[in-house]
Specification:
heterodimer; A: mainly beta; 7-stranded mixed β-sheet; 4-stranded antiparallel β-sheet; B: 6-stranded mixed β-sheet; 5-stranded antiparallel β-sheet
């Protein structure tokens, strides 16, 4: 497809379960970003990749959160032992270069995670 | 980290009215983007505007990087303009993450 895609679009899980959220960036985009958006707030940075290398994971809230992009394309954000406070919209974005020029980020539709 | 403030937080207008949304940021930035989050939750790119002025139909934006602010102008508002408008900035040079403002919620009344 032409845009960033994410799956699933909605995920309801029970506390303590692990979840994996998938992001498929725009074809050819080097950089991939994960953000989390709580209700009524703007998105907050979690982590990002250039190709397959994780460049910055300073926004991951704790060690239950991890992300990978093994082949430099599709990325998975994994949350282990989910807690109710993890409920949020998880957004993925990609950009062409990730460098100083032309780093416009394009967002996917998001995955709405609800932890019961 | 860098602080991004948007004003006003809420704006209710009659269809056809014009509006100006403001974004202030606390430090120099390499890039700035404006987004529209529509009622279905999708984040739509409006402008990529680290400096200068751009126009796209009824929308235009101006960023004055030296004074650390950006403005989004919406003219002849339509009900489909309703939603939340976010400004987001990027420091660049090894710090490519976007830092978002708190948003302006715009409601256009028919």
């Amino acid at each position: 497809g032409a845009g960033v895609s994410q799956s699933p679009r909605y995920k309801v899980t029970k506390r303590g379960q692990d979840v994996a959220l998938r992001c498929d960036p725009i074809s050819g985009h080097v950089s991939l970003y994960w953000y989390r958006q709580a209700l009524g707030q703007g998105p907050e940075f979690l982590t990002y990749f250039n190709y397959e290398a994780q460049q910055d994971k300073s926004g991951l809230p704790n060690d239950r959160f991890s992300a990978e992009r093994p082949e430099g394309s599709i990325s998975t954000l994994t949350i282990q032992r989910t807690e109710q406070r993890d409920s949020a919209m998880y957004r993925c974005a990609s950009s062409l270069t990730g460098g100083a020029e032309n780093n416009e980020q394009f967002f996917g539709p998001g995955t709405r995670l609800t932890v019961l | 980290g860098i602080q991004v403030e948007q004003s006003p937080p809420d704006l209710i207008l009659q269809e056809g009215a014009n509006s100006t949304l403001r974004c202030n940021f606390s430090d120099s930035v390499n890039n700035l983007q404006w987004f529209h989050q529509n009622p279905w939750g999708q984040l739509i790119n409006l402008f990529y505007i680290p400096s200068g002025t751009k126009q796209n139909g009824r929308l235009s934006a101006t960023t004055v990087a030296t004074e650390r602010y950006s403005l989004l102008y919406i003219s002849s508002s339509q009900t489909t303009d309703s939603g939340v408008y976010f400004c987001a900035v990027e420091r660049g040079f090894g710090n490519e993450k976007l830092t978002f403002g708190t948003g302006t919620r715009l409601t256009i009344i028919p």
